[in-house]
């Protein structure tokens, strides 16, 4: 079965969902998981003002309570030049997928840890290049691809694909069955709940058709 995982490196609920996805990958090695940066806030000019920091902290606390994921609330990434633009980290994920496709989830998790735990600015190309180097992509090779017009176009195509499938927020996990979109989860789910949904999908997908009759909520980040 092929699953499409729509996520965003700077979506806090996606960070909270990361351990669940890791367990899913480990438990179902036969599942073909395609990770797509859906574009939570690409091109955003949002600065982290006092009000926006309060907004982030509120949702980070909720994510922590539901998932147990740690957040550093000091937000060391904040600066006068920082904007909550999720396009750079989304593009970085696509670059790594081109060079090391089997390490894309590892790199996604690395960016999330860098941002939420270490307070690094993952809108910065040098920071992203250093993270890519940690998993085996040379900095100069990464940066050349990252700054290419081709990669910028492909990143935007990922955002458009997300919209075409009707993805309204992140994280979203779905399948495509005979061209029809089947959403397995929209928003955070604990692993046991997601496991039941996946098990049901694995069963029903083998039944012949004739046998068949820019905001955040408390579970996801959406438009």
UniProtKB/TrEMBL annotation:
This is DsbA family protein. InterPro entries: Thioredoxin-like_sf.
